[in-house]
Amino acid sequence: MATRHGKERVIGPLLVAGLGVELVPLVSELNTDALGTFSGEIERKLGVDETLLKKCRMGLLAGGTDLAVASEGSFGPHPVLPFAALNEERVMLSDASLGLQVIGRYATARTNYAAGNVTGFDELLEFAVRARFPSHHVMLRNAEGAWRKGISTESELRAAWEVMKSASGVVWVETDMRAMCNPTRMDAIERATQDLVERLKARCSRCAKPGVGWVRWVLGLPCSVCGSPTEWPRKAVHECPHCHNEVQLDFPQGMRAADPGNCPQCNP
Hints:
Elements: H1 8-19, H2 48-63, E1 67-77, E2 85-95, E3 100-108, E4 115-118, H3 121-130, E5 138-141, E6 147-151, H4 154-164, E7 171-175, H5 183-201, E8 213-219, E9 233-239, E10 246-250
Antiparallel strand pairs: 1-2, 2-3, 4-7, 5-6, 5-7, 8-9, 9-10
Helix pairs in contact: 1-5
């Protein structure tokens, strides 16, 4: 596994149990941070899937194996919920002998992702507590662009504040989203790995290769009162990543009609 941030703790047991493999984390051999960091010190120039493939290839070369696994996460504004953040995690397994790549996915609004300027230690501590500190770490950046990462105790936080604050008493603070510093994100990585295992066990009805899984929703579940289409899913589209054969599953959430409270006609 190509990782520097302890992800093998949640990915390993699921792959061992689900696939019967032995997972070897390549921590010291690989610098996956060279492909981009959450703090922005190193810009991620590739897309998520391209970054995953690059990490897997680094792992294949360093480990001399046929199989490699890597994980990549992203954070940003939620596309539907206002003022909420979205965490999307992807875990790729690359099979060099078969030339296959399969990606497990999980997206959630359950994240502590946050950042901003603070002008005093009390304000900084309030930010940290809201971010579930100390179980979830924070990091600081000063006006010169220097970082202090992985801050996990109040004494470390106070010491970092004294060093990092500018002449005007301002410092930039972020939640530390590296996996080993963020249990909530680690839970999302575990869910993405579960999805990966399920996809690896699912065979395509056309080409018989593994990796079939959900790719998108088809909206339009009818209202239970007036029958008008709503924004709730009516179908789930599953796709083979190799031959792109699609299968549509009706009523993926077990509902054949939507509550009228979610209907643009009954509840405009």
